[in-house]
Give the backbone structure.
Amino acid sequence: MSIGPVQSFVPAGEVQPADAQPRAPQSRTVSTHNTLAPPIHLSREPAPTRQTQPDQSASEYQPPQDQVRVQRDTELQNELIFKYVDHSGNVIFQVPSNEALSVKRGIQQEFQQRATRSAERER
């Protein structure tokens, strides 16, 4: 597949002279001066420092801290439960999860019931 020369089009209302030659590339100067940015110092001397007053309200503000609560579940042979709680007391994350604890409790109840049944049969 080959691509042939492309004809150029003149915008409507504009007449192209018959002896038209391609324009030479024009150089443009782009100003990069930004009044908001501080000047860049290219010398080896240290840049001048600005002295600002620290914002007192920002240093006094303490964001609410999350907490880790540890519980011991006596039903599950003193298994430790770690709860990550936000500042309002809502549980963010728990290890082991409620679902895992529920399964473990169900298994333990099943073992206890079987142990009681087998102890009753031996009598």
